[in-house]
Amino acid sequence: MHSVVAQQHKPGLSRVAFVSLFATTLATAIGNTGLISVMPAVGREIGISDFLIASIFSLSALMWAISSPYWAKRSDRSGRKPYILVGLCGFIVSMLGCGLVVLAGLAQLAAPVVIFLAFLIVRSTYGMFGSAAGAAAQAYVADHSAGGRRVREIAALGGALSLGTILGPALAPFLILPPAGLAGPMFLFALGGIAILLLAMAALPRDRAMACAQRGDGTGISGREIWRDPRVRPFLIYGFAMSSAQAANTYTLGFLVIDRLGLPPIQAQGAIGMAMAAGAIAGLVAQWGFVGLAGMMPRALLRWGSVLALIGNGLIVALPGYMSLLGAFALINLGYGLARPGYTAGASLAASDRAQGAVAGAVGSIAGAAIVVSPVVAVTLYELSAPSPFIVLGGLMAALSGYVWINPALAENRSRTGAIVSCER
Length: 425
Prior knowledge:
Elements: E1 2-6, H1 15-46, H2 50-78, H3 81-106, H4 112-143, H5 147-171, H6 184-203, H7 211-214, H8 223-228, H9 233-261, H10 269-291, H11 298-318, H12 322-350, H13 356-384, H14 388-406, E2 419-423
Antiparallel strand pairs: 1-2
Helix pairs in contact: 1-3, 1-4, 1-5, 1-6, 1-9, 1-10, 2-4, 2-13, 3-4, 3-6, 4-13, 5-10, 5-12, 9-10, 9-12, 9-13, 9-14, 10-12, 11-12, 11-14
């Protein structure tokens, strides 16, 4: 028997299911931000330029942008859990491969250009397969929650990203151990990924997402269709611009720290980790404090997110020194920490339940597409003039702030509940 029930009647995720999703998000965040934090040192030790180091992540990001809607669509038909496991496997394989490539580069087994190409190819496997976990996890949350609860649970997963951003760079310097050296963090992050994979296999309940569709009652909607939805599109546009800015800030941070301190790359690794941790703590405060406890809803999150990121980028330009950089980067990430659940939950709440897979795929695609070009452009601008990328980012944040104020589709949507089709036997 088919019945239509309001979203607010969704029971929510069980504690075990949420812990499994949280652990999955946390593990991948630890590995990826830990890798980002060591890559400036890896590049300068091997002899790969800053520009090429930034571009290493571009192919992976492009694969992520292309693959996310595909995995989200498949999870509509087969359930979310299988694709969360696929994503974890992609993470593990990528980390192991990157570690082997870095070992080869440090041992001078090949020319730097060959090491660069090998790293580019190996890293792309994460974009192709790792993207499955992010899209499926968000859709899993949307399948089981609604309204303010959905905003809080999406923010909590965002908090896992922020916590991973703290732990990854904080742990990475201590994992640079002989005989692996700079490749050590990658191997150990892969081992952690294996542990989380086993946890998810055992603890995450197998869902029956889109069970109605499997019986011929519909198949969800496509990624193209969700971008045409006038209720959802403004959140996705905002999300792409904000994600691009966050990627630019994150990928230039390591070079900025090295240059401001004037230290050799490996000696600056601890300071890079501290700066990334400061930003991640600020993001955690935003997502678990302002969203989880204070209950801020999407429009306020979007508005304050862009304003705080604007102020932070301005402070990087205006104030010299490492300590001012720490404070500015923390303020920037407080803004990004508000904005991410704002556009993610806002898009989800604006769409019907039939469209949740497409929304999750679009958000995942945004996350990948934002890294394809913006880090390379930001690092190129930085090499030309250190303040220039932050001036550009400040201008972008000012434009986004205005976009929130003037766009009626970004109005508060606390009352949007939509409807879902549940299948009962």
